[in-house]
Amino acid sequence: MLLFIILFLFILNFSFQYNCDHDNIQIQNYLQNLYEQSEKHAPKQTSRISEAKENPQPIRITIDYSRIEQTNDLTQSQIKIIKKLIGLSSDYFSQMLKITPLKGNNKYPKYLSGECNGIIIPENDKQIGIPNSDLHIYIFYMNDNKDDSRANANACAFQEITYRPIFGRIQINITNMVFQINDHKLFRQNLESFIHETLHILGFSKSQFQYWIDPSTGKTYKKGNNQIQKTVNVRGKETIMLFSQNILDVTRKHFKCQNAEGITLENESKSQSQIGSHWDKSLLSNELMTNSAFGLVRVFSIFTIALLKDTGYYQEVNQNLSSELQWGKGKGCEFLTQVCYSQYSFPEFSTENQKYICTFDRHGIGYSRISSTTDNCYVVDAYLTRICIDQSNQANENAVKTMQYYGFDSRCFTSTSTQPKYQTIYKDQRSRCHKFKCDENTITVFIPQIQTQITCTQEDKGKALDINKDDPKMGQITCPNDYNDFCNYSKPCRDNCSSNGICVRGFCICIKGFGGENCSQNCPFGVIFNSDCVSQCPEGLFQGPDNACRKQCPSTYYNSNGKCLICNSQCLECNGGDPNQCTACHFVDVLMENQCVLCNGDVCYKDIEYEILIKQQNLIIIQFQSIIYNLQKYMDNIVVLIEDFTYFEIERTIIDNKQIQLKFNFTRNPPLISTRVDIYFNKNNYLRIKDNKKFIYNIFTYEYEQNQIVNIQNYQKAIIALSIIAFIFTIVIFFYGQLQFIDGIIEKYQLVYMMKLISIKQNLYMYVFIYIYIQQSFQSRNIL
Description:
- Belongs to the peptidase M8 family.
- One of its GO terms (molecular function) is ribonucleoside-diphosphate reductase activity, thioredoxin disulfide as acceptor.
- This is Leishmanolysin family protein, putative.
- Its EC number is 1.17.4.1, 3.4.21.75, 3.4.24.36.
- The protein is α+β, with helices and mostly antiparallel strands.
- The protein has 5 domains: 15-182 and 191-334, Leishmanolysin, domain 2 (Alpha-Beta Complex); 349-488, no CATH class; 494-566, no CATH class; 606-687, Immunoglobulin-like (Sandwich); 690-784, no CATH class.
- The protein is 23% helix and 28% strand.
- It has 17 helices and 49 strands.
- Strands 3-7-9-8 form a 4-stranded mixed sheet.
- Strand 17 (357-358) and strand 18 (364-371) form a beta hairpin.
- The model is unreliable at 1-16, 682-715, 747-769 and 772-784 (pLDDT under 50).
């Protein structure tokens, strides 16, 4: 009997564990070969920096379902569910990501083999291509009971030059991925799986890190990817650490660890699978891009948003479509580096032999177990029959006897609530699921069975309160220690959006044709008001993302002509769609003059308007048009470049809260004028200075150390080289008028930047002519 109970509990906890198989050897070998083939045939790479100036549009994702439509292994209802799942996933990314659209049809490159890891590419996709598509995904399946994964995915082809994925494939293992009509919880889990796999196509893949775009050059890192990743030893295991700029910023801010070098990826698996292309589960637990799930709410967090930004493929990544992650938040460097092996005890981890205790996110009741994917730390996994947010568990007999409540608005409390006659049976179980409501300074707990509510005030934190003062045998409820954490754990949506939407920050974004708080109401051509489908909301109400009339727009949305529109990606809350209309910011940024700006420690950076003033021949004044916060630390990170000078900076002084004075010692000293001075703010990718780069095949180089140029080499050779270039350009313009060709050459070899740096003044008419042409041509396109 005991063996049966243990086996039953095992099934309850692992029956819907999700494993991703992206890093298996077959996929990684395919991807490596794909990159090599793409490099051989792609034209020589040029910078993508200018592309960001183009007007980005939502990414267009198209799907090929033909391989699942032509099988008898799936029923028509299952195929319909799969199409709905993938359609929702694609719509989600179309709202999140903006790119410069492909011009013309999306064609599969002819130089590739025509086979993508199990997919034979249709000839039509190579010859004609896919219309209105920026990413085309093939869906197919396997039926393998020896493979414990539910799905796998990879990119199939990349855009020339930019290396953004333009074709991909997702393979479903129908042995492990179940599709059932009206099972909304299962639908949500499957939706999370498809979003997870799509992210592997979009750039979250260890094989693709080297083909992310370096923001300082606009080109792929390639062998220089040691600028964003390295291998470190974590408790005896070689582990990939990512430290690209946005990931580093988020890591430091989330964990409150300013010394963080980056964040490590998953390093544990029963095979080579799942290593290197997923977040470390001990650090980010229920993040959507960890390698496995155990059924509670998974979070598409700011970490994955940061990764998408750092790929460089997407001009805009709207983090308002992410949700908040609480695991490890604010726990410091000790948590980041030591997890459960720290001298401190973190609530994210449990100890051995604990039963019937709350999961970290309070979504369920479970028991402690050790897991290799969490660095062999003990964590709490919920029993499927005791997940608080699952309404179906209300039917369990123990829910009545212990006065529990199951639903999306339920959480796990330390509680001994029990009907008096069952006290003996449940005396050793001290966790219960209860309905709750958070207000500004209180948490109210509801006991529907006896029509009672208990209010936890600020003074009650950590205290045990009687459920019924007249009958102590009914037990007690202990108020949480931290109300802010308790009320902000990842929020589920009612009925999992009824399989008609996606849950973001606790509210549903419904697909077209459905609406209401849980997306359950059919409304093909209108909006839901008082359970009716109407043409528009009454005056004073707003159409929300759930296609229902609301008194106010949810967080991350603003009202525009009676509709709730999503805020600019830089704003958490806003009163308009522009980046300078923010009223609140995501946790990485701070609000300054209605803009959300990045902070490193207490130093903040944004695009700032300023004026250069020349006080004397060795003194420069930077005069800002508005007050600068933390000006002292801001000043320490300014880079100054002065054309045609070799110099050392002597000192910097704050004159007032809007002016900085810089004093120099010049070794070459032409007349100093303001147009010769360029200012850069060199933190967090705001500096686009090309330090230690070589121009025109080693003719001209300079060294850059400690925020200043210390040496310029081959100056005379550069003068000769530019004069020759000017002569050639003049001949081409005079005889052929090939301005477009010259534009390409100038941009490709960054000649404008070089000319701008050294500003050579020689008595060469042809050089002056071409220099003026270059300046005017590029200024007209906002490149200079």
